[in-house]
Specification:
Helix content of chain A: 25-40%
Number of helices of chain B: 19
Largest sheet of chain A: 6 strands, mixed
Number of strands of chain B: 0
Structural class of chain B: mainly alpha
Oligomer: heterodimer
Distance between the termini of chain A: 32 Å
Strand content of chain A: 15-25%
Largest sheet of chain B: none
Number of strands of chain A: 18
Order of helices and strands of chain B: HHHHHHHHHHHHHHHHHHH
Order of helices and strands of chain A: EEEEEEEEEHEHHEHEHEHEEHEEEHHHHH
């Protein structure tokens, strides 16, 4: 009875192509970077203080907790401040470490090529941990935690689906760096002892399928897997269900699977081969409100406003949305002075559509039909308005994955997703 | 540093409602789907009798326009009431109120289509008042009503003013009246009643006799049979259902499962009442009465229907079972309106249960929950079928005793 069909999003045709027409822009020398001290709800403790000289790749902060992970200096230079507030993709202002660039790019000593053949799998996992690799598909979950040696892993899933509209950075990566992805894949296969790896792309991306098929002809244990062009087909649970044909409750390792994003695989390859920490990333800068929509290669901590200025600015619409993340799950911000954090995938600038006049909920129940986790958002919405905790518990509002489909489909434009997420927060508070 | 200011929006930023899939558009679709039915009702009850040479009592020009007048009056009354309420009493923005007036017209159009041809206009207006004020506005307007406004209006009018409507001429139009009165004896029984009443009066008669007054099943399927204005054409109702399903205004599952359940159960009843495996029996049951009209336009009404997908399926099944229950085991021949209203009342309960069953991760528990509900439905069906079967047997026994008595003499 589980609904794993997903919904094909017809609106905004050719939304991915608009950012593919332009070449990837490198912007690796910003004047200042702001390394955010918040990730996935946890806070980092800075090691450096004002006036310190830092080298490129130096650890400057550490997040404690169940899965500790470090943050690294993306450039070399001088620390200007350790608690300057900047906008973050979570929609809030967070403290950041501000570093002034000296444009020398002096790197720490550890960044050097390794003899990969001699590394054991534990050493590889340690390198992934030390280099601060987190899930780059948007989650920001520390990657090393997935390679716990206690888990028996059979299947490795490389997620290049990118089910959200407009985003195209995974597409660019598979198109340009397939060799590196395959190498990274082999490292992860060695770490996890998995038998087979699947690279998952959408059926509709003919160009990618050709490239991957040509490359994978000679390799036995890495295969191509195709999914339908629906949303949310890039969702972990959807992929595991399709490939392993089993449901899991909390983590994919319960059914012997590990899911990694392609960008994460590339970062892992760099970390294992050259000890390069996660200090630069590709993100998609797109939407109908921006000049030259394209993918940009930037340092972590760069301000989006700097990148957009370098890229050519905005199209002169009267009202624009600034969306951190994809158009379905991203957060809207008022100012564009937002930092690039490690798990940010895209920034979408969209023209504002007038959504003022709406009718009452007519109770069509479409939100319940499309929900991938079988919730009934319309009831959660009502229960949340009445602050009915018991009812929210019974309706399992905490299972929401924030995919945004209920609001997308709602003919009365009710902000169901936002309200269900608020209900989730409200439940967690008590 | 001066930075650009953006508009704060709520995710997701792509909405289907921006692309002609909003509530207002869907309601226009609903009206568009009703137009062919209105036209057919007009042609069948107004134009054809007007130009027919065979009718005994000639049809006046006013009577020709009358079906159309009924529908338009209904739509106009309901719209007027809602406009007065929102624009003058509640003093809302008049532009917005006007842009949503087509939604207010829908119960009126439906109620107009649910009127027997002879219903006086004032009866319809009273029905509209009941439907809009009591059923809709008192509950909080569109989106908050518990019962289907048009159906409550229909049931109210038919119970309160049945005598008035019947004295004015009841269901049949001039052509039907003509044929019915000039045909074989016993036809007075049929005059003024629908095929379903006729069917109910002759439950154990052979199929050929039941169909005989209406020529053929196919003609009935096309819509040439006595009945309220909108319900007669099964074909047009099916086409409207297909259109609405394609435009995703209604859930195609509800009419399909509803009609399917009625079809299956009446087939079983047919077998147990001595009709054998005659496929015409269940077909007769689904094309007569308001079943197809109710299944497409009333049962699927989103406001009063269930919200959960599994709830919709159970809703449709229970509608089917209840329709059979009411049709065979109550004094009233029609079971559709009553069963839909009864289920409207139970929607909150049904939804509450179904929303909890849906999120149940264990297949076993879901299976048990659904099984209990299905078993309940099966028990009701068995009850109806055995009851009908006993009635059939009793009748057989009476006939046998009677024959024996005659033989004995």
């Amino acid at each position: 009875m589980n609904n794993f069909k997903g919904i094909h999003i017809k609106e905004h045709k050719n939304n991915k192509e608009i950012s593919l027409h332009n070449e990837v822009l490198d912007f690796l020398d910003p004047e200042y970077v702001y390394v955010p001290l918040v990730e996935q709800g946890g806070t980092f403790t800075p090691f450096v203080k004002q006036g310190d000289k830092v080298k490129l790749g130096q650890e400057i902060a550490l997040k404690s907790g169940r899965f500790p992970i470090a943050s690294h200096a993306p450039i070399s230079g001088e620390v200007v401040s350790i608690d300057i507030k900047k906008w973050h993709s979570s929609g809030k202002m967070v403290p950041c470490i501000q570093i002034k660039n000296d444009f020398l790019e002096t790197a720490v000593d550890t960044i050097k090529p390794n003899n990969v053949d001699e590394l054991s799998s534990e050493e590889m996992v340690n390198k992934i941990k030390d280099c601060g690799i987190v899930g780059l598909g948007g989650s920001g979950f520390p990657t090393y935690a997935k390679y716990n040696p206690n888990n028996k892993i059979d299947t490795l899933i490389i997620n290049a689906v990118e089910c959200e509209p407009y985003i195209s950075d995974d597409y660019i990566k598979v198109r340009d760096n397939l060799d590196d992805i395959v190498v990274g894949c082999k490292y992860i296969l060695k770490i996890t002892n998995a038998k087979v790896a699947y690279i998952v792309v959408k059926k509709t991306k003919k160009e990618l399928i050709d490239i991957i098929n040509k490359k994978l002809d000679l390799i036995d244990n890495i295969k191509l897997f195709l999914v339908n062009d629906v949303y949310p087909s890039g969702w972990e649970k959807y992929l595991v269900k399709k490939i392993v044909k089993k449901n899991y409750q909390i983590l994919p390792c319960e059914v012997g699977a590990v899911v990694n994003n392609v960008s994460t695989v590339l970062a892992i390859k760099d970390a294992i081969e050259k000890n390069i920490p996660l200090i630069s990333k590709t993100l998609t800068l797109t939407g109908n409100g921006i000049v030259n929509p394209r993918n940009v290669h930037v340092k972590v901590g760069t301000l989006i406003s700097d990148i957009i200025r370098k890229n050519g600015g905005y199209i002169d619409y009267e009202k624009l949305y600034f969306i951190a993340g994809g158009p379905l799950t991203g957060k809207s911000l008022i100012f564009d002075e937002m930092v690039v954090n490690r798990s940010l995938t895209s920034v979408v600038i969209l023209e504002v559509v007038d959504r003022e006049i709406n009718m009452e909920c007519m109770g069509c129940g479409k939100c319940a039909t499309v929900c991938p986790v079988n919730l009934t958002p319309v009831f959660i919405n009502t229960a949340f308005k009445m602050k009915n905790k018991e009812q929210l518990d019974k309706l399992a509002a905490n299972k929401c994955i924030a995919c945004g489909l209920c609001s997308y489909i709602c003919p009365s434009r009710i902000d169901l997703t936002v309200n269900v997420l608020k209900a989730k927060e409200y439940m967690a508070k008590r | 540093m001066n930075s650009k200011k953006f508009i704060l929006g709520k995710e997701p930023f792509i909405r289907k409602a921006d692309y002609f899939e909003n509530t207002s558009m869907k309601m226009w679709d609903f009206i568009i789907a009703l137009i062919p039915i209105v036209i057919f009702a007009w042609v069948k009850n107004g134009i054809l009798p007007y130009f027919s040479n065979e009718v005994v009592v000639p049809v006046t020009f006013w009577q020709m326009l009358y079906p159309l007048v009924l529908v338009i009056t209904g739509a106009f009354t309901c719209t007027l009431i809602e406009f007065v309420y929102y624009a003058w009493i509640k003093k809302e923005n008049r532009k917005i109120v006007l842009s949503q007036m087509h939604v207010a017209a829908i119960p009126g159009i439906l109620l107009g289509l649910l009127m027997p041809l002879a219903a006086p206009v004032w009866v319809l207006i009273i029905g509209c008042l009941v439907a809009t004020i009591i059923v809709k506005l008192l509950f909080g307007g569109f989106g908050h009503n518990i019962f289907n406004p048009a159906l409550v209006g229909y049931v109210f009018v038919l119970t309160a003013y049945y005598g008035v409507i019947n004295n004015a001429g009841g269901f049949p139009n001039a052509i039907e009246l003509n044929i019915l009165t000039s045909s074989s004896p016993g036809s007075e029984l049929i005059a003024g009643v629908t095929p379903l009443t006729h069917f109910k009066a002759n439950l154990y008669a052979p199929m050929d006799d039941i169909i005989a007054p209406y020529d053929s099943l196919f003609k009935m399927f096309l819509g040439f049979k006595p009945g309220v204005l909108g319900e007669t054409s099964t074909l047009l109702c099916i086409l409207a259902g297909i259109y609405l399903s394609i435009r995703k205004v209604i859930d195609w599952k509800i009419p399909l499962i509803y009609v399917g359940t009625v079809f299956g159960l009446s087939y079983l009843v047919g077998i147990s009442t001595g009709h054998g495996f005659d496929i015409r029996y269940p077909f007769y049951c689904i094309i007569t009465g308001g079943l197809m009209f109710g299944a497409v336009f009333m049962a699927t009404e989103p406001v009063t229907g269930p919200k959960t997908p599994n709830g919709k399926t159970l809703f449709a099944i229970s509608l089917g079972v209840l329709t059979i229950l009411f049709r065979y085991l109550s004094n009233y021949p029609e079971g559709v309106a009553t069963s839909i209203l009864l289920m409207n009342l139970l929607v909150v309960l049904l939804d509450g249960v179904c929303a909890k069953i849906r999120i149940q991760p264990l297949f076993k528990k879901r299976f048990i929950a659904y099984s209990i509900i299905i078993v309940f439905f099966i028990l009701i069906s068995i009850f109806v079928i055995t009851k009908m079967n006993n009635g059939f047997r009793e009748q057989e026994i009476i006939v046998t005793i009677y024959n024996n008595m005659i033989g004995g003499q």
